[in-house]
Recover the amino acids of this structure.
């Protein structure tokens, strides 16, 4: 039981997918201008990633491995993720057209979000079982959402700051992301403790 | 010509910063008393670097230099850096840290009042990640004379491992972990026995506990001067005490006591001087409580389970990240919209 | 592999039917930002058509001179697009003004009444026309049709009721 | 008996500077050469002028009639000749002008016939009309027409009537002096208001730095024998005299922004208003004068009974302004309004003319960035977070500023007063508020324009359709006729060509309408350009004349450079 908790905590804080593993920076920088959109993006990614981790585990174990075609893993995972993203996009378009418009290109781009492909692959590499895969995927995406939302909170406030012109916008956001990453380094070593 | 109000209270950023500096004096005095005058050199180096960095940035940005250099905010940052870095850190380490703090963490965000992160703590984290060894070498009280300290700061002497050890916090944690290990010769020793060494004093580290007392005195004076409010120190100390009490109560042999945690490392400095930085900290009364309690818990977790000698700096940065959300969600109800 | 692709394809197909989108509330939001001058400077016959065009991605957000820079900023914000300056071919931002009919010259031809998109001109054939200043959006569409050029644009002057506090000037004495 | 008092959050304690102007009793002011009486002096609609240049008016004669729902009449302050009804600079920071009646006094100061009212025997509605026509407005500074506030809430009665004698602004003492010298008359006004509002109790709140006023009012209450009226000394803390803050202190009730205080069983009036209500009811005298404190950079600060319309410099001269005077401020140093000139008139809102100089009210030190120290939040009597509002006002993020309750700000100035960074916070809030209001106006007019535009399109569509239907009906009739005729001729082909008597087929109908619409379009296309062709001959002649003029104009213009 505790080990599952540590999988989640580890994925959220200690090995935060964005701030520590430095994966999924594209939406992290792109959709963090406003809190609302960050929350939406976080939710969408959480959905895709959790589902993607589960599905890819199943496909990996029950299709690819029996067939002995593990070398197709990356390809298969990409296809799975692409399909899930498509479904998510349709759902969001239906339920929240504003969010759909605001997320814009970043929504379909979840497909190419390296975090979304990276986490299922990490699952395989870390020999997680189905539940662990799901939890790891969920934890990672919660970590992603957390970083995204916190980042958006800071960026909303930075909007009013008197940032030197050359650093306005993405540049100072990068500096901020760096400092956030630094802060998360404080968790280093925590996962080894148990 | 200005509009109303036409009268104002005599208050300025400069006087606020000056009082913060004054409040640091008791702790600095204790520092000098127990650890020698090397810290004064560090304070001077850091101040000079901070002012130089600030002046350069102001010049580049075309801002009025006299106005912003005399506000003393850069000096406060510099002093916090000097007080958190090891007193025998080489000069270039202090200078680099200070410049990073002032130029990157403060001025790139627009200068005074606009930095989301505490510059001094960001500098500390950056340096400890970059130079973990140099940042973890602390002399014991009264161990080094001024001459040796100067040699250490300005180069030359560098066989520090022989003469310095880890901070009491770090030492105790290592000792406790060893004590838990059946193969270690320390196995089975109690906390009180582990703290019997020359590095430890009554509550925390020898000497450093008196510095902590200095911070406490200065901090209480700041509260009396209405520069800071009681919320952050109280919540930080309370939460740190509580979390330490929880684990220490369950396993007194495996964890340090709550009072040890309060008296060691940067706890007091953090509670009264670092987390209370209004720019990067939470501002609403409820927000301040949350902010400081969160910082205390992170501090405790990092101290007890993490890889770094002290958790205050990282905890501060972590909570700085949360500040915009905390402030947003803890706004007090305004006049006429209260529910009572 | 093909099997996976087939299964996923089926799921997608099902989803696209199940979550079919109708209507577009986005147009409303865009329309709410547009100044409703109905001037047509954007190249569309009114604000709403322009809003529809923006929502469909057929028009840029910088084609509305009366909305000005601020309008563009708001649109950029809403749509998450980059801000861009007002496109010059669609006109320039002018101070808000109203049309005024020179009653000595007006011949009562009603052409301006037909041209006014917001019914801000009252009058009948062969009678003097007057512009209801409060309802005039300053679109200038009545200027061209007037056969006697009796309509001019006058900038709106400030009154106590419309007076605004200025942005506080930051006076920092250079050191 | 000690009453339980409540506290409001925040507040500041600026130097009160009140004793200087209370040493001498209230003085009168000699008639000026000219009175400038703005017609728009109170919140609400602009009163319309009732006099013309050249008219002779008597003191108390109505010169501006109340207009619209919320408006208040304006009267001649003395007898004399109306010299002009014109735009004149008003006592407002903007320096803009407003329609004003300019009266040259004839020196006789002769009253017009005055009509008194017994408030107990007059229906409340008539009483309110009477007060509206007497121009009675709130004299605390907000100048809200008093008649509109003299309505009890839904229940028909009120719990508490709060009378505001707190006068928390530094320097101002006109309410203090009024309470010292005219307490019994003021009390009669209060009794009348209490009757109109059916208030259970009356609480007169007076800051405890005015013990003479408290004593005087208490003596007057005792002498009158009224029960349920109490003069309460409240702690001196700015802005205790803000209506919301005073209500809070005396009753514990917080009236939220945008709500009527009567909904909470409370109403609040200034002591000066009470006095002018007494004057209006008891003597029939409309509001033509008020007490004004002249203080600040003058040698003899004092209170004066001033006719509305008196130029401020005429008044200030009596108090001996010092030579380095560089500005007049209407009101106190916390919320006062800087005047655009020295000769602006005293109006109903003028409780104080604060004479200022660069040494008395020095310019603030340079603005520094906000360090989020929270001093402003501690001082804010409305429990706001001014530094957050400032942060978003400065970056013109008005939506966010409003999320932090910008409009609950009462602009009391406490935040600017305490700010260690010397930020003119209130200026930022004023800027944001007026910017938001202007946007709302724009939005409203945009919405109206959209509605009219859509209606016009709808109308055009309908007209087109009606026309088309008419044409279609006509066509159908014709075809029917043709069909009946065709039926007589056997050569007519069946099926497609022969229309049914009743063209129920959709296709046929659509085709018909389309044809009609096409025709209508063609017609329209033909007509439109020819609109000017079918004009009456005289109009055509007009156009020709105009065209000639127009052609001549550029020619002339072209001539000039050559000449």
């Amino acid at each position: 039981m505790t080990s599952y908790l540590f999988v989640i905590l580890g994925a959220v804080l200690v090995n935060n997918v964005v701030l520590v593993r430095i994966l999924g920076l594209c939406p992290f920088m792109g959709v963090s201008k406003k809190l609302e959109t960050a929350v939406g993006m976080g939710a969408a990614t959480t959905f895709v990633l959790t589902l993607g981790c589960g599905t890819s585990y199943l496909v990996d174990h029950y299709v690819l491995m029996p067939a002995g075609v593990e070398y197709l893993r990356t390809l298969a995972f990409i296809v799975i993720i692409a399909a899930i993203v498509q479904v998510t996009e349709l759902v969001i378009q239906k339920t929240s057209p504003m969010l759909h418009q605001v997320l814009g290109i970043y929504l379909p781009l979840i497909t190419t979000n390296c975090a979304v492909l990276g986490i299922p692959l990490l699952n395989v590499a870390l020999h997680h079982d189905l539940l662990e895969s799901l939890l790891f995927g969920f934890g990672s995406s919660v970590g992603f959402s957390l970083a995204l939302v916190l980042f958006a909170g800071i960026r909303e406030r930075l909007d009013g700051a008197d940032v030197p012109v050359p650093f306005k916008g993405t540049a100072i956001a990068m500096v901020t992301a760096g400092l956030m990453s630094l802060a998360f380094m404080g968790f280093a070593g925590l996962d080894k403790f148990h | 010509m200005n509009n109303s109000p036409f009268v104002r209270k005599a208050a300025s950023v400069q006087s606020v910063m000056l009082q913060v500096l004054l409040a640091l004096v008791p702790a600095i005095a204790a520092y000098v008393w127990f650890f020698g005058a090397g810290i004064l050199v560090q304070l001077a180096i850091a101040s000079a670097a901070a002012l130089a960095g600030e002046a350069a940035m102001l010049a580049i940005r075309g801002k009025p230099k006299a106005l912003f250099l005399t506000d003393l905010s850069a000096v406060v940052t510099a002093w916090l850096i000097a007080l958190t870095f090891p007193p025998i850190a080489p000069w270039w380490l202090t200078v680099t840290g200070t410049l990073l703090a002032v130029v990157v963490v403060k001025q790139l965000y627009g200068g005074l009042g606009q930095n989301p992160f505490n510059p001094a703590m960001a500098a500390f984290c950056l340096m400890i990640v970059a130079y973990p060894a140099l940042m973890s070498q602390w002399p014991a009280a009264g161990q080094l004379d001024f001459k040796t300290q100067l040699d250490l700061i300005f180069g030359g002497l560098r066989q520090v491992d022989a003469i310095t050890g880890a901070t009491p916090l770090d030492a105790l944690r290592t000792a406790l972990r060893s004590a838990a290990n059946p193969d270690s010769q320390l196995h089975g020793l109690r906390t009180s026995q582990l703290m019997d060494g020359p590095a430890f004093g009554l509550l925390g580290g020898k000497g450093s506990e008196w510095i902590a007392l200095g911070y406490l005195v200065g901090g209480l004076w700041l509260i009396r001067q209405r520069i800071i409010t009681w919320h952050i120190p109280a919540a930080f100390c309370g939460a740190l005490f509580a979390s330490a009490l929880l684990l220490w109560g369950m396993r007194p042999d495996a964890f340090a006591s709550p009072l040890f945690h309060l008296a060691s490392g940067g706890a007091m400095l953090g509670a009264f001087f670092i987390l209370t930085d209004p720019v990067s900290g939470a501002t609403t009364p409820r927000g301040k409580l949350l902010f400081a309690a969160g910082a205390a818990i992170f501090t405790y977790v990092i101290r007890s389970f993490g890889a770094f000698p002290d958790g205050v700096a990282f905890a501060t940065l972590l909570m700085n990240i949360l500040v915009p959300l905390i402030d947003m969600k803890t706004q007090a109800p305004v006049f006429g919209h209260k529910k009572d | 592999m093909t099997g996976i692709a087939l299964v996923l394809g089926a799921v997608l197909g099902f989803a696209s039917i199940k979550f079919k989108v109708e209507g577009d509330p986005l147009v409303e939001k865009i329309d709410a930002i547009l100044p409703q001058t109905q001037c047509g400077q954007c190249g569309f016959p009114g604000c709403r058509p322009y809003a529809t065009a923006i929502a469909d991605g057929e028009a840029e957000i910088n084609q509305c001179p009366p909305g000005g820079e601020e309008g563009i900023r708001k649109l950029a914000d809403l749509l998450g697009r980059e801000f861009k300056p007002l496109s010059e071919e669609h006109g320039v931002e002018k101070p808000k003004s109203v049309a005024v009919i020179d009653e000595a010259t007006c011949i009562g031809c009603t052409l301006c009444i037909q041209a006014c998109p917001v019914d801000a001109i009252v009058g009948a054939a062969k009678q003097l026309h007057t512009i209801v200043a409060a309802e005039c959006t300053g679109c200038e569409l009545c200027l061209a049709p007037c056969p006697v050029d009796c309509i001019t644009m006058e900038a709106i002057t400030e009154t106590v009721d419309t007076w605004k506090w200025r942005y506080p000037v930051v006076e920092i004495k250079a050191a | 008996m000690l009453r339980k008092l409540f506290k409001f959050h925040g507040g500041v304690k600026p130097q009160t500077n009140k004793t200087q102007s209370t040493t001498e009793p209230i003085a009168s002011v000699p008639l000026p050469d000219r009175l400038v009486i703005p017609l728009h002096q109170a919140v609400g609609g602009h009163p319309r002028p009732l006099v013309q240049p050249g008219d002779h008016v008597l003191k108390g004669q109505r010169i501006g009639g109340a207009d619209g729902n919320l408006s208040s009449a304006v009267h001649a302050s003395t007898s004399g000749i109306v010299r002009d009804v014109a735009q004149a600079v008003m006592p407002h920071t903007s320096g803009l002008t407003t329609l004003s009646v300019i009266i040259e006094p004839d020196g006789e100061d002769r009253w017009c016939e005055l009509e008194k009212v017994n408030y107990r025997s007059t229906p409340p509605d008539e009483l309110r009309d009477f007060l509206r026509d007497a121009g009675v407005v709130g004299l605390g500074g907000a100048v809200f027409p008093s008649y509109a506030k003299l309505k009890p809430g839904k229940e028909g009665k009120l719990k508490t009537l709060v009378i505001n004698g707190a006068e928390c602004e530094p320097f101002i003492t006109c309410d203090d002096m009024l309470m010292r010298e005219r307490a019994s008359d003021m009390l009669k006004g209060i009794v009348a208001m209490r009757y109109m509002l059916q208030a259970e109790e009356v609480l007169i709140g007076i800051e405890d730095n005015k013990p003479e006023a408290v004593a005087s009012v208490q003596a007057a209450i005792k002498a009158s024998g009224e029960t349920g009226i109490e003069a309460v000394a409240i702690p001196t803390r700015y802005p205790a005299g803000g209506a919301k803050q005073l209500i809070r202190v005396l009753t514990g009730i917080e009236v939220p922004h945008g709500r009527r205080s009567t909904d909470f069983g409370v109403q609040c009036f200034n002591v000066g208003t009470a006095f002018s209500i007494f004057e209006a009811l008891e003597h029939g005298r409309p509001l033509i004068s008020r007490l004004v404190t002249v203080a600040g950079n003058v040698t003899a600060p004092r209170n004066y009974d001033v006719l509305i319309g008196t130029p401020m410099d005429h008044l200030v001269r009596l108090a001996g302004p010092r030579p380095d005077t560089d500005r007049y401020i209407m009101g106190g140093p916390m919320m006062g309004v800087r005047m655009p000139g020295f000769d602006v008139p005293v109006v109903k809102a003028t409780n104080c003319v604060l004479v200022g100089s660069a040494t008395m009210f020095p310019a603030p030190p340079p603005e520094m960035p906000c360090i989020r120290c929270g001093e402003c939040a501690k001082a804010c009597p409305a429990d706001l977070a001014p530094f957050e509002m400032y942060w978003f006002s400065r970056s013109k993020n008005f939506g966010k500023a409003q999320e932090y309750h910008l409009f609950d700000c009462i602009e009391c100035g406490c935040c600017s007063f305490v700010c260690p960074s010397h930020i003119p916070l209130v200026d930022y809030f004023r800027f944001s508020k007026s910017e938001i209001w202007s946007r709302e106006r724009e939005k409203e007019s945009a919405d109206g324009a959209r509605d009219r535009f859509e209606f016009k399109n709808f109308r055009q569509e309908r007209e087109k359709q009606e026309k088309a239907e008419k044409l279609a009906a006509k066509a159908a009739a014709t075809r029917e006729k043709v069909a009946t005729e065709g039926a007589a001729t056997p050569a007519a082909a069946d099926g497609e060509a022969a229309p049914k008597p009743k063209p129920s087929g959709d296709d046929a109908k659509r085709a018909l309408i389309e044809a009609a619409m096409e025709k209508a379009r063609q017609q329209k296309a033909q007509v439109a350009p020819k609109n000017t062709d079918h004009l009456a001959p005289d109009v055509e002649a007009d156009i020709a004349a105009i065209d000639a003029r127009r052609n001549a104009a550029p020619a002339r213009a072209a001539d000039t450079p050559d000449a």
Summary: Chain B has a mean pLDDT of 87. The radius of gyration of chain B is 21 Å. Chain B touches chain D at residues 1-9, 11-13, 15-16, 64, 67-68, 71, 73, 110-114, 229, 278-279, 283-284, 327, 331-338 (CB under 8 Å). Chain B has one domain: 13-328.
